[in-house]
Amino acid sequence: QAPAVLQWVTRLWNTRLDTVQGEWQTGIPCDLSALLEHMGRGYLPYLSANVEAVRVGRKRFTVEIDGIRYEGARYSRYRVWCLQQLRDHFEALPADAKTDAEALLKSTGCWEPLWRDRDLPLLEGQEQGLPFRADTKMVGVHDTLLRRNTK
Question: Does residue 140 contact residue 76 with C-beta atoms inside 8 Å?
Answer without folding.
Answer: yes
